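ok so I'm stuck.
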Amino acid sequence: MSPAASEKRIALAAVAGAHGIKGEVRLKLFSDSVESLARQKMVFAGGVERRLLFVREAGKGGVARFEGVDDRSAAEALRGTLIEVDRSALPPLEEGEYYHADLIGLPAADAEGAEIGTVVAVENYGAGDLLEIELADGKRSLIPYRAGIADLKDRRIVLDPAFLA
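replied:
not stuck anymore, here's the structure
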């Protein structure tokens, strides 16, 4: 079973490369803005805890600076690194809200309780969230995360198998 939600780390961004010569990095954001990242004082970059000195919007992504990353070479060495925070550092959710990371690892079953597979990823291509389900035979299928098609009930996803491709 996956670790408890409070023990998980949540990726908020990934380092896309260096920005300038003073240790700043370009970020690919995993949210709509830098707001969720800007609230954090400490983050994990590649599993190493670092102080976030600043983050700002930059086009479709962001630019950030971390303590101890003082030049372009150090910034470039972080390319591809995930910027994560402890799940417990994120704000509490309202009713009906969820973090993608909380869905990954959940079992998926049909309405009668028959096991179908496991949620291995959550994707969003602009029209809403899609759950990637790994089926018992190892194949994977995307299913819309919508009421009546895939519902979260008692720490499992109850889905309509007719929507599995």
